[in-house]
Design goal:
The protein is an alpha/beta fold and 313 residues long. The protein contains 12 helices and 11 strands. Strand 3, helix 4 and strand 4 form a beta-alpha-beta unit. Helix 9 packs across helix 10 and helix 11 packs across helix 12.
Length: 313
Amino acid sequence: MAPKLGYLLPTRESVMEGRPAVAPLLELAEKAESLGFDSVWIGDSVIARPRHEPLTLLATVAGRTRNVALGTAVLLPALRNPVLLAHTCATLDQASEGRLILGVGIATDVPNIRHEFEACGVPFDKRVGRMLEGLRLARALWSGEPIDWDGRWKMNQAILGPTPYQKGGPPIWIGAKVEAAFKRIAREFDGWFPNGPDPEGWKTQRAQLDAEIVAEERDPKSVTGALYATFAIDENVSQAEGRLNQFMSSYYGARPDLMRKVQYSYAGSAEGAAKVLQAYADAGVEHICLRFAGDHSRSLDVFADIRKGLGWN
């Protein structure tokens, strides 16, 4: 089966470049849906990499679209009170009639993100445990049953309403690509959503993850295998490389060669990009979220043509 294809809205770039208006972002989301993309995604950061708040903006996208899935790539649950997060996600899932995918992460250990956690009053070193417990609590609340909870948060016969449109709540995918995280994914998550590695590396790591899933007595097919990757398309490869390097440097405030070692990215022709996508499909990837470096409207057209050429429509 051909992978589903998603598109990351450039919320970070629009704020960085001093044009935070939402209307152009909504137009891109509508265009993605009209071209047959399967999902629209929004990233998350408060002050480390300023951008629009993802769940708020996804609610607006929900009102302007009808079919695309709506995802976070990726949300940092540890920064949020899980009771409020559960309520927000349930409402958004109802508003979109079951289109929400909650992509989450633990956050990278770099100075600006540590400062972000401090500004939000959340201990950075406790972020993994806080995230896991918070998501367990959210899932319990999404059941609609009275909940007792005695942990970081205290609840006595609490009931959340509305419950999500999707029974049990939206699927929760996690961005991780280290073996230490695979046991956690196998126990607790509905999808694996790394930002790399290359197709062969992805296939190898997926096999490792599947072994952990089986050890937890779960069906590997119950855990979606996804991917988040960055593309700069230009028939002039040197121009594509320059655009991608500039994008990575501006986006992360770090050397692009270092960022490209830890995140999968491609710079080059549309024909080469098609080969990359097919390689991921052959490796077993089920859902690919595309981030573009360059003209987003043109890139959407290019990848719609690539998809058609691959016979994925």
